[in-house]
Design a protein that fits this description.
By secondary structure, the protein is mainly alpha-helical. It is built from six helices and two strands; from the N terminus they run ααββαααα. A hairpin with a 5-residue loop joins strand 1 (37-38) and strand 2.
Length: 142
């Protein structure tokens, strides 16, 4: 390869590089996230800029963004709009993290309960009654 030339990779090569199935790259292309060059017979060829986009898509997916959100982020006009999208997603993540912490507390409470069966624990029953409503009678496990 000459200096300044951009390496071209096949769909199989780029899929292998990132541990993806080729249909994933085709799907991302149909979703407007990738636009590889086309060469003889319409075969896709990926350049280094495409590698960067694939890595960005994967990282954004790891951060919990949907393909729609990723496309919105990648096509946003200006840094202020991209920041707005990230702030909105951050709020969603914080809410999900809070819910997961609450769920983890529930699981840990059941595992650390001194009762033989955690469903007999007054604390557990109070938590469940709070979810049902105050009028719920205590549950006696069978």
């Amino acid at each position: 390869m000459q200096a300044g030339e951009d390496a071209m990779m096949t769909i199989g090569e780029i899929a292998n590089k990132f541990g993806l199935a080729t249909h994933v790259l085709r799907h991302w292309e149909s979703a407007g996230l990738l636009a590889p060059a086309r060469v003889v017979a319409g075969r896709r060829r990926y350049r280094s800029a495409d590698l960067y986009r694939v890595a960005t898509i994967l990282r954004a997916k790891e951060a919990g963004l949907s393909l729609h959100q990723i496309r919105e982020l990648m096509t946003a006009a200006g840094s202020a709009r991209r920041r707005e999208i990230l702030l909105r997603h951050r709020e969603d993540l914080v809410a999900r993290i809070d819910a997961l912490r609450d769920s983890l507390g529930f699981i840990e409470g059941g595992l650390e309960c001194e009762h033989e069966d955690f469903t007999a624990c007054p604390h557990y029953q109070a938590t469940v009654r709070a979810r049902i409503g105050r009028q719920a009678a205590p549950h006696i496990p069978v």
